[in-house]
Design brief:
7-stranded antiparallel sheet, 22% strand, 25 strands, 27% helix, FAD/NAD(P)-binding domain, 2 domains, 7-stranded mixed sheet, single chain, alpha/beta, Cholesterol Oxidase, domain 2
Length: 535
């Protein structure tokens, strides 16, 4: 099979690329996805993502190595293995990131990726329910809910408490500034998950110049010297080869893109040689510089009914289920994260370094094999969670063997620096400050986790290590930069030292973005398509 472009991975970036590269009708594009269809009820129903959390039919289900920073625990890493990728199984929070994040990209030598460069792309792809202004777009292919309906009433009291604790109210974290407290915008449209597959890929699949093959796991990049000319993939137990006359584009994400490069002889020479793989390009950065956000929840027993009361009993499930099926309304039509915020853990910081989440919901008693979003605690509970915005710890992702079907080795190195530990310590203290404000405190019966017996810095840090985990934002493992000495791709997302090959996904981020990654990945792919079509 011959195509102009081959895209590996139908996740967020791959779906955007497939739509953009086929829109003019001039190019034949092949999109290969290891997973299957996204036409599943628990994918389409927003709160159904609890059912996909451990489902191997739609989830790679990775596990990181035992981590000293997490008290020796192994962290679970869900990643989407389905059309839409992780946008089909995530929590649907739409956050672009702080403008300064992209200025950091530009300052690192990535021309064309500063805030003034990326803002037009965000606005072009958006169809924001709140309407267009100097910061937001409307009429684009990707609908974003303002999340003004069916939120639990406790969210307003959380916002009031956070304001009493010193945060300004922010009506739009994707607007003029990120700092403050407010409600989260969601990738939900008419009560259904608005994944990248729904917004971009499904419309593009109607075009004759796009071919999408599912259940096709790419095992290597086919090279002619130092030029990528195609890929080999396995489907139904058979190996096949597809050729690209223009480019191969990797959009496998922060785990799979570096894995595939290494399997194809592009990466740290010592790692490749140890697995008997011939070195095509020695680049020590492939799989390294891993960045991820870490999060923790503080959980409270409440004096008033929360979503627990409606979603735990069978009659509540039936009532909300009927409400959702008939009206596409109610808690099943939303993310569990309804309130949010960004704050500075101390006044010496020049920009927010921590993200807040509020959930009128608690899950201290999980059901085996399922993220307990549909099985909350048997008492009224609520949680205030947070995650760090710019961790300084760095990890790596490396192949374990030359077997392309073997899962790679993920070394997250959580809390690998004192900086990351100390800012999280400052942050959890602020959670308690919010909870003590009368606007919220009047509804709180007690703090359940970690509990008020945990008070000293040493005790709080130990709790942080025991209860923290990834918030599923791995990035930077094929990072962008002008030089191969410290990067994998150049500012045009072309692989250093290889022709006809680009990486377009979160692995290409030069540094992690402050907030959830789905929106900036869409922006990256949107701009990448423009770059590719002009090449």
């Amino acid at each position: 099979m011959n195509f102009d472009y081959i895209i590996v991975g139908a996740g967020t970036a791959g779906c955007v690329l497939a739509e953009r590269l086929t829109a003019n009708g001039k190019h034949r594009v092949l999109l290969l996805e290891a997973g299957g269809s996204d036409r599943r009820f628990y994918i389409q129903m927003p709160l159904g993502y609890g059912k996909t959390f451990y489902d191997p039919k739609v989830n790679w289900g990775y596990e990181a190595e035992a981590d000293p920073g997490l008290a020796g625990q192994k962290d679970y890493w869900p990643r989407g293995k389905v059309l839409g990728g992780s946008s089909s199984i995530n929590a649907m929070v739409y956050i672009r990131g702080d403008a300064s994040d992209f200025e950091d990209w530009k300052a690192a030598g990535n021309t064309g990726w500063g805030w003034d460069n990326v803002l037009p792309a965000f606005k072009q792809l958006e169809d924001f329910e709140g309407g267009a202004n100097q910061y937001r777009g409307a009429g684009g292919p990707f609908y974003i809910s303002a999340n003004l309906k069916d939120r639990h009433w406790l969210g307003k009291h959380y916002e009031a408490a956070a304001q009493a604790a010193g945060l300004p109210y922010n009506p739009d974290f994707n607007g003029a500034t990120q700092e403050g407290v407010g409600h989260l915008q969601l990738s939900v449209k008419n009560g259904r998950r608005n994944s990248a597959a729904r917004a971009f890929l499904r419309p593009a699949m109607k075009r004759k110049n796009l071919e999408v093959i599912t259940k096709a796991q790419v095992t290597r990049i086919v090279m002619a010297g130092k030029r990528a000319i195609g890929v080999e993939y396995v489907r139904n137990g058979k190996s096949e080869i597809a050729q690209a006359t223009r480019e191969v584009i990797l959009s496998g994400g922060a785990v799979n893109s570096p894995q595939l490069l290494q399997l194809s002889g592009i990466g740290p020479a010592e790692v490749l040689k140890s697995h008997g793989i011939d070195v095509v390009v020695n680049n020590a950065n492939v799989g390294r510089h891993l960045q991820d956000h870490l999060g923790i929840n503080y959980t409270f027993r409440m004096k008033v009914p929360t979503l627990n009361d409606g979603l735990r009993p069978w009659w509540g499930k039936v009532r909300h289920g009927i409400q959702y099926l008939l009206m596409r309304r109610g808690p099943l039509s939303l993310s569990i994260n309804q309130g949010g915020g960004f704050f500075r853990t101390n006044p010496t910081r020049t920009r927010p370094n921590m993200q807040l989440y509020f959930q009128a919901f608690s899950t201290l008693l999980p059901k085996a094999g399922e993220r307990p979003l549909l099985t909350p605690d048997p008492f009224p509970g609520a949680s205030i969670g947070l995650s760090n915005c710019r961790p300084t710890s760095r990890g790596e992702i490396m192949i374990r063997s030359a077997d392309p079907l073997a899962k790679p080795r993920i070394v997250a190195n959580a809390y690998g620096t004192d900086h990351d530990v100390q800012e999280m310590l400052e942050a959890v203290k602020f959670i308690r400050t919010i909870a003590k404000q009368p606007q919220l405190a009047e509804f709180i019966a007690e703090e359940l986790r970690p509990g008020l017996l945990v008070q000293s810095d040493e005790e709080l840090i130990q709790d942080i290590r025991l209860r923290s985990g990834t918030v599923y934002h791995p990035s930077c493992t094929c990072r962008m930069g002008p030089s191969a000495s410290d990067a994998v791709v150049d500012p045009q997302l072309r692989l250093h030292g290889v022709e006809g090959l680009r990486v377009v996904d979160a692995s290409a981020f030069p540094s992690i973005i402050s907030g959830n990654l789905n929106a900036p990945i869409m922006m990256l792919a949107w701009k990448a398509a423009e770059i590719i079509l002009k090449a």
